[in-house]
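## Example pair
The file below holds two records. Each record gives the amino-acid sequence first, followed by its structure token line.
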Amino acid sequence: MATEKKRVNVSLSKPTYKALSYLAKRDDVPFATKASALIEEALELEEDIAFGYLARQRESENVTYRSHEEVWGKYGL
């Protein structure tokens, strides 16, 4: 059965390889699984940074605030 996951070749420095290998062994998971999980976590952190930047851009003195009801209606629909 073919996997739906995409493959990527990555060159790692010795210290990075050793650290990733240690973490995979510590967590009793395959090397690639640990690498994938850490990449996903890094992407989530980058997303959080981007949303934080967007939120700071939207904060200004020229903001018009609206009530929840005004935006979403009386029943939040």
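Second record, same layout:
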Amino acid sequence: MSFGYQVLGFGSGGAKKKYQVQFLVVAGGGAGGRATNYGGGGGGAGGFRTICSKTFCVTEGDSIPITVGGGGAQPNNNPIADAKGSDAVFSTITSTGGGAGGNKNNRPNGPSLPGQSTGGDGGSGGGTVGGPTSTGGAGNTPPTSPSQGNPGGRGHITSATVSAGGGGGSSSAGGNGACKNGGAGGAHTNSNITASDVEYAGGAGGAGGYGDAPGGSTGSPGGGGAGSSGCAGAGNPGGNGSANTGGGGGAASHSPGNANNQPARPGGTGGSGIVVIRRVTADSCGSGGTETTSGSDTIHTFTGPGTYTA
């Protein structure tokens, strides 16, 4: 028996179109360690997460909030937990901010300052000011697969000098302090998602030891700041991480000799992060961020918070 009508559209025709994109999500780098009478550890790079082909599925018409993490800062009154970089987020993908470099406050004639000698945990960990049995801040925290980063390096302490570890990078751990030299920042990772080959998420250098230390280590390419030297007659701030790379902030150094009465020097600020989404122009719609094209693809670059409309 017929009732004179047909029911249409159930199970077909009503579903939204899905398409696949490539992404890069880099969090803000951690701050470099502050210096009192010891130099600080290098800041860890922000978490680095990417896919190298268009395999991440989005639904046409959906509005996807974008978070771009800022770099951590280490002023004199800032505990190390607050000097971590900020997370970057695209859809279900979160990259964790880089851990701050450690700082060791042990000056009897100066004010007590917040902090800890062990570097902070994060996408990549901060370097520590502790001795050879210590460990740097943990990287890949919380864990992702593939790993979003690596641990910071450990420090080096003798009766004559103290040097600090470098911050972890996206491709390798931070270097350990050795004799009077700070550890190098951990290695970065290259990406050409923006149609240019760019270095991201490099760890920062640790500060050199006190006394006649030759200096701090350079940061990794990929935005990591350089750790500073204590040999110039006064302590120096750490170098800042580069913007939109997720590089860690460089460690500050204290002044040579007895620095108990010297003011603290701030660590470098971590580099801010970035989010990039790349899609096939002809097969998809999308808007948001700064839009560019490369061949058959459209690229959406976010250097601050925004929305990707699929």
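Notes on the second record: The radius of gyration is 23 Å. Residues 132 and 156 are 6 Å apart (CA to CA).
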